[in-house]
Amino acid sequence: xxxxxxxxxxxxxxxxxxxxxxxxxxxxxxxxxxxxxxxxxxxxxxxxxxxxxxxxxxxxxxxxxxxxxxxxxxxxxxxxxxxxxxxxxxxxxxxxxxxxxxxxxxxxxxxxxxxxxxxxxxxxxxxxxxxxxxxxxxxxxxxxxxxxxxxxxxxxxxxxxxxxxxxxxxxxxxxxxxxxxxxxxxxxxxxxxxxxxxxxxxxxxxxxxxxxxxxxxxxxxxxxxxxxxxxxxxxxxxxxxxxxxxxxxxxxxxxxxxxxxxxxxxxxxxxxxxxxxxxxxxxxxxxxxxxxxxxxxxxxxxxxxxxxxxxxxxxxxxxxxxxxxxxxxxxxxxxxxxxxxxxxxxxxxxxxxxxxxxxxxxxxxxxxxxxxxxxxxxxxxxxxxxxxxxx
Length: 391
Description:
41% of the residues lie in helices and 21% in strands.
């Protein structure tokens, strides 16, 4: 988006962005409510809504006459035909979803693989899936872009995947590969950071200004930070790599990987092993652990809770968040005994730092990374509805 400062065009573009962002984040809103939230006058809001309708970004709907007396205001909603392609490549599968600007996910696919997918393979799978959707169930869709949530270090300036160790990717220009394959603008980010963003906007962290998010996936543990309401990326975008920290392990018998990092000890693979599964998605793992309440399962969950709790203590002491959100298999670990995890954190952390602390599991469940990836794809459009290109 061109910085037009205080010019009329610049103000107009910012007002369009404001209205579109509101219906994206809040859902359908009446014109009267938009007027109140934006601080603009009614005629200006009507003009902005009309323009967004012409751009194919919002719809005006008749109000529900049962909701109020008098002449109710028309309702403005994001057009569900405006979609982003969201992608999460992992060591055992590539998940691809179509995510609407209205927040719905009309279709998603999990393409399981028996090998580590290459960047080129991921780009090809995205393009093939998109072509199939466009020729079938989503033939009337308007795809805005592609967002990719990658389990690794992603350079914020250009989306270069510097290092995704579990995928064995290094210095990969994933954004360029996907743009060439699909013809759509692409955005690439760290999966956990995008998950943190999604939970902050729509999930367990909605309305919370200071939170720590930890994501547990097939490739290990990543994290995201929201401080004063803003996602923290660090100098180059690599902030939040909790899984690479050295864990504090109080009992020597709890250690499984001598000299290992947090994700070596608190591990999805170890949970799959005690559950008797070779592989599986998050619901399958959670169900298997719940259906097999053996001593081995209980002991492994307790061991991982102890180590995870100490890792959270370090984050709480340093950052003093009001909320910790746990996603993926970490949610399963936490939910196995929430009171125990909370007691571990409170017993080891600085007391004052835990006074207002809550620990929650991710509210968006399996969708959190895909919704975060879609937000990255929607970002240019939300910032400038007139300037973003769409296919």
